[in-house]
């Protein structure tokens, strides 16, 4: 294919076609990023931070254009798309303010008269990014990477080509030099070759488990630094003493925001048996009150899935789970008509071995599993090959913290839904990947921790 096609998932209609970058264009982009890297790294960190301040302003000025493109290309609600742009701007300001301190040399006492770690950029970093948060996923790696002095190449998901073009434009408008951030409108078949190119020093991927294994293998073969943020099947553990009204309200938010297409969405609701019936009853009522419709409409709660094949895959997981013994409480059938809509769906009596428990369900499907007690709930939560996030809901935060420590995941929350925050490291364990984004740890991933010893 010589084009990337943007399709409106609310209607199924083609929005636009974008030419793919040819081999000569890719070579020119690689060469320009490599040539820009030394000059960008040599600029004072205060200058790089100033560009991030400017970038925050550009994002806020372009908020409506950026949000509308995201909604039209991948189907998230317009109100959520606006919030995503705001989050990107806030992260720019956070790193502009705090990042320079993170890049200072770290002094370490030794047998030298002076010894320290000098934090230096690697060079050029490839970002392979998904469609579900078309701006935030790219920004949360590009912001710390560029502030650290790296140049960035973006290979975005093929169904959000307009968003990818916007990303390059906002960096240019903020005064970043040519070559510091470049969009590569190429297919997935080009990724391994880019990783192996000597002018690329690292790669970060957010995406599926399969994509992560492929990129991780390519990075390992080329001996390149890599960060992988992959799928999740986050447990939402509800203890018998939890405030049910508040917990159900947050369960709806944690599962169904972004149309349920979120790696850190709560997917497996593990509830103590003593309150399970009451939880399911309230959860069902809240789910059935959600409004499905046009994501551009302010009154809509659930928009379409991003692609028709994703809807088919999700429905297959629901069907297989019900066939294996899960109880369908709400939803469960694709909606007729235009667009890739799937209703908010609730499954009860889900057990390990069922698709809704073992696999990542990327869409508006909530699976309830009943636990005998808190220990059994944690055991069930950890009975997953994924380990991105998880949460514990209880009236006793001290007990909640103790249980959160036992969750096998990279991000554990007590009485709050899992979210990413520039101040805190973000990433997973097990089949959810490795490495960290955001915070001080995120900025370190694509830096050379150079030891300097002075006698």
Automatic annotation (TrEMBL):
It comes from the Bacteria. CDD domains: ALDH_SSADH1_GabD1. The keyword Transport does not apply. Keywords: NADP, Oxidoreductase. InterPro entries: Ald_DH/histidinol_DH, Ald_DH_C, Ald_DH_CS_CYS, Ald_DH_N, Aldehyde_DH_dom, ALDH_GabD1-like, GABD/Sad-like. It holds the Pfam family Aldedh. GO terms for molecular function: aldehyde dehydrogenase [NAD(P)+] activity; succinate-semialdehyde dehydrogenase (NAD+) activity. It comes from Thioalkalivibrio versutus. This is Succinate-semialdehyde dehydrogenase. The lineage of its organism: Bacteria, Pseudomonadati, Pseudomonadota, Gammaproteobacteria, Chromatiales. PROSITE patterns: ALDEHYDE_DEHYDR_CYS. Belongs to the aldehyde dehydrogenase family. Residues 4-452 form the Aldehyde dehydrogenase domain.
